[in-house]
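Batch manifest, entry 17 of 40.
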Amino acid sequence: METVVQALAAYGATLSDWGVIIRNGKATGVNVVVRKGRVNFKSTGSGKLLASGPLEAASVERFVESFWFWEKS
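Output type: structure tokens
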């Protein structure tokens, strides 16, 4: 999970204790789940899988840049 936290920090975001991505003090509605060496991004409302990839910073970067069009700060 540390890989995800470090990758999110470059965008001014972090993870809550329950795995939700937080940016600017607001929950984004996306939950991060790490299982079997993969990172899954799921909707907190529906539980729908939004994206998945290997547990590496590039997967996190790819998701936040394509889903929210975030840029590194």
